[in-house]
């Protein structure tokens, strides 16, 4: 009999994530419209997804459940911080009784009770004793949740963020309530799409924007630099033997750095600035690291230099700004460059198809004029987005912050890997939960601003009833068809909104 009971228990296991730790057998009589994983509710195919600018909502389908509820359940909605809603669900006794009978009918069909033919009526007490009262109770609660969740969530349909829905009531509490009252009460917590509040209202319609243009993107400056780079490629490198590093030289360096701590044993390496076999062009000056050139001037081949350094407040990696570090630089090789004379005989080598140096210069200038325009447009877009995020108030859901932050960190990690060729140990260190958490903490303001920009753009698109023309959508799909197929993405609203804003904005350009 015990063997039969175990077999039946394995055949009909309820969702185990809510089961008490003492329950080792699991069974499932019904299929919930959500799967349970550490109290997180993940929508099944009964729900469809709508994506809009990094936000994914849950919208119940036309018929999320075919189960009819004889009596309406009571749902109390309570707003909580961070655009979170608590739904307190009270399920009346009649609904619970209905679900209990449904469980018994299902068990009768499936259970192989000794002395009874499969599918035939089995007295309730015999069936419950065979399967186990505890198992029947768990299956009944599962049935109640399956029956009532769609109606409970109907008040947040179209607002709930994907993967944010979870039952906060512990399963043992639900068991106790059901056992004592033959009814059920549970709480569901949901992150919802945050409301965007504009200050001032409609202020985005008349933006005043000042765009700072970096002198480094000046077309003429960039063209001259490119010409010099191509000329260097035609030159040759000679080994320096009797002196140290000078401006104009090329050095091959191994660079490492650690933080400076009062307790030396607490010092940590800084993987993002470490590099082996780095080819340092002294003519680039401080492009690599501000004041780096002054610290390594005079270093000779085979020599190692160590120096303290404080990362500037303008350093690209915010987590390192103001950090005190100790750099160690090994000069593996040192070269000086010999350049050919710049004349028309080099034109074809400098730029295929050109016959004179003047033609090379003009072609390069035209190329960088186009790049300058692109950079100017990008700077304008960034300035507008920055202004938008300053004009909105948003109570950002924790889930949205976490997802956006992890997406940014992943992109940054890929960039560091591409630039520095990190070792497996360095990559593992940067990928650790601790490193991700530190990034989320130090980048909190930046992540928040990006989310506010995205929400502001989406709100303008909706408010102004902007439309995506068919030909625009077709062009977008043609340009990134692989990405659309991989991620099932919708058309990006941002270009349309920025185009609309530029026409109405007062934009001033200055060079910094």
Structure description:
By secondary structure, the protein is of the alpha+beta class. The protein is built from 16 helices and 18 strands. The strands form six sheets. Strands 12, 13, 14, 15 and 16 form a five-stranded antiparallel beta sheet that branches. A four-stranded antiparallel beta sheet has the order 5-6-9-8. A three-stranded antiparallel beta sheet has the order 3-4-7, with no helix packed on it. Helix 2 crosses helix 4 (133-153) and helix 6 crosses helix 9 (357-390). The N and C termini lie far apart (85 Å).
Which radius of gyration do the C-alpha atoms yield? 33 Å
Instruction: State the separation between the terminal residues, measured CA to CA.
Output: 85 Å
Major β-sheet profile: 5 strands, antiparallel
The helix tally amounts to 16
DSSP strand count: 18
Helix content: 40-55%
Strand content: 15-25%
List unreliable stretches of 5+ residues.
1-66, 483-491
General shape: elongated
Mean pLDDT: 81
- Computed structural class: alpha+beta
